[in-house]
Amino acid sequence: MNIVVCGMKHCGKSTHGLFTANALQCPFVDTDDLICDEHFDRTGKRLTPRQIYKQFGEKHFRELEAFVVKALIKQGENEKSNRVIALGGGVPNNTLLKDSLDKLGFFVYLKVDKDVIFKRIKRRGLPPFLQTADPYSTFSELYTEREQRYIELSDLTIVLNNEYPAAKTGKIILKKLKEALNER
């Protein structure tokens, strides 16, 4: 079964997803990396997700995103794969995936305080979709909208804080994940 890690941008999906994959001895997949690979295959240009979004627009980005996620769903159905998949923060709200996303696997929502996330985003530079007159208000609206979808999809919600280093947080996530899967 695929373990699907979702949550807001910079909540730790890739860090904790990779830790979990290593602990479970299974492959780790990040949809952002797959989007970059697919864009390269189509255009011959190697760009980051931010560059793709900025240069080609949201519609193109969401189409790439839907393509790679649907390919993961199909692989999972055909191969009965066991992977840990980190979803980009906007994937759950991608309307092109509305009726299929829940087929991807067991969803783990990493919930991090809105203000903590916004500080992390600001530190790394505002993405195009937050470059507005009031980035914090735009982010707050987005956080509220996306959180509803994360909660709908999640089989397990883990509230994270900054109390522990990543390795200890990863162990906590792994423990809760194993408990939840054993209850199924």
- How many H/I helical runs? 6
Read across the widest sheet, the strand sequence of neighbours is: 2-3-1-4-5
* Termini Cα gap: 12 Å
Which sheet architecture does the biggest sheet show?
A: 5 strands, parallel
Helicity range = 55-70%
Low-confidence stretches: none
What is the average of the pLDDT values? Answer: 88
CATH hierarchy, class: Alpha Beta
Superfamily (CATH H level) name: P-loop containing nucleotide triphosphate hydrolases
What percentage of the residues does DSSP assign to strands (E)?
Answer: 5-15%
Number of structural units classed as domains: 1
Q: Please state the oligomeric state of the protein chains shown.
A: single chain
- How many β-strand runs? 5
Could you name the key traits of this structure?
Rossmann fold, 6 helices, 184 residues, alpha/beta, 5-stranded parallel β-sheet
General description of the model:
With 184 residues, this protein is α/β, with parallel strands linked by helices. The chain has six helices and five strands. Helix 1 crosses helix 6. The model has no long low-confidence stretch (mean pLDDT 88).
Could you give the topology of this structure?
Blueprint: E1 3-6, H1 13-24, E2 28-30, H2 31-43, H3 49-79, E3 84-86, E4 106-112, H4 114-124, H5 135-153, E5 156-160, H6 166-183
Parallel strand pairs: 1-3, 1-4, 2-3, 4-5
